[in-house]
Design a protein that fits this description.
The complex is a heterodimer of chains A (245) and B (255). With 245 residues, chain A is mostly helical. Chain A contains twelve helices and no strands. Chain A folds into two domains: 53 residues; 179 residues, Serine Threonine Protein Phosphatase 5, Tetratricopeptide repeat, CATH 1.25.40. Chain B has one domain. The longest helix of chain B has 35 residues. Classes of the chains: A mainly alpha (245), B mainly alpha (255).
Amino acid sequence: MSGSGRLAVLPPARISLQRLTQAVALAIAGAALAGALVTSRGLQARAVARTETAQPIFFPRAEILRPALLGFTSLAADLTWIRTVQYFGSRIEGQERFPQLYQFVDLATSLDPHFLDAYQYGGLFLVIARQYPNAIAIYEKGIAANPSAWQLPHDLGRLYFLELQDYEKAMHWWEITDRLPGRPHYIPRFLIRLQARLGNVETAMELWQQMLEHSENEAIRDIARREIRKLLGQMQQKPSPGRIR
Amino acid sequence: MRRVLTIAQMAFTETVRDKILYSILVFALAMIGSSTILVTLSVGGEGRIVRNLGLACITLFGLFIAVFIGINLVSREIERRTIFSLLSKPVRRAEFLVGKFLGLGLTLAVNLGIMAAGLMVLAWALEDHWTPRILLAIGFTFLELLILTAFAILFSTFSTPTLSAIYTLLVFVIGRLSADLMEFASQFGGPSLKATVNVLYYLLPNLAQFNLSSAVVNRLPLDPWVLTLTAIYGVLYVAGILSVAIAVFQRRDFR
């Protein structure tokens, strides 16, 4: 039986009492939910204030964490990675440093040693944070766990070439990249140029340009655009000694 | 065999009428769909987040179905006294239990199929290509859930539904941990602990063996021989636990 049907058989006094109860209940519901909304906004503001204070974050060791995850380690690695991206993204625009970036990337890659994106982007984030030894450690860890993935020696070679100007090491890692299946077509060209031992801004520019063209990720392309703009600025200030041909 | 199939069909009809099944299914599909929100928070790894979360949801919600429906299949018949009318017919107790197991197995297969379809479509929409290896991972999850269903039925033959649920969930936890326990014992334990863990390792199901999600998500090569052995192990384990359940159920006095 419908609500109105039920009301039809009740005396008028009962009907008005029921309607009054209904109206009061709805009013209380509206007030209570509005109050909950206000409280929730207050809690949210406090939560933001809490996360903005530089609290040290506890990083459990992956070996200890793994049994507690009951086999869902790969998913835990994904969630750690999302947290890493949020950590990096929240600080990249400001002048803040990244004291826990390495721990984040290390935990994500320890939980899933085959998580290539975490090594690649994690290494890149560490490079942007100017934490070169940590970036090298992440790339080398990834290469040891994934010896057939060309992306990691490729990126490590790029780090040695662009940031550390250690051309011998860059060549070593690009030679390894060159032997791996699926490597990009430009690697042999880079190797030839490196053999001429003439690294310069224009070559760096081309490396970033390659990343801009080949990366499927908009955030990474943004980083490449920014680096290219930086290099263009450098080129305008100081003319390059000559491009490798 | 016909009697077993009739009971299986009845058990399947009974379980698909259970409202809890639909709540679990809707919630599972919503969780799988929610991975698209997580993807927007990440840089890289978008496809694997969807596949990882989807496979984890399928395992966990499949576990809930196996446990919370499995524990009631036998106990409900006893509670409602319908077991008397059933067993007064020419139906053996073994046929009754196997039929119930097959019925719930079919329910699980249908539900996993729906969840798998949801995950496959989502992964395809995101990556623009099909990833059939997800189905392999889900197939082995199904085997894992069949082992747990057999345990749920075994426990429900001699215990209350609440305790049966707790015992079955504990089997899941220990089964997923058994390889880690073995490693801990070999690193830190004395000879007696090592021996105990060794016995437990072979006695309890090694459920970690059925978890292919990391290999599938990372596109790692899978050894067909290991997969075949794992499948045989799963079938034999189910047969073993169901046999124990039949032996216990044979001795059960319903007065």
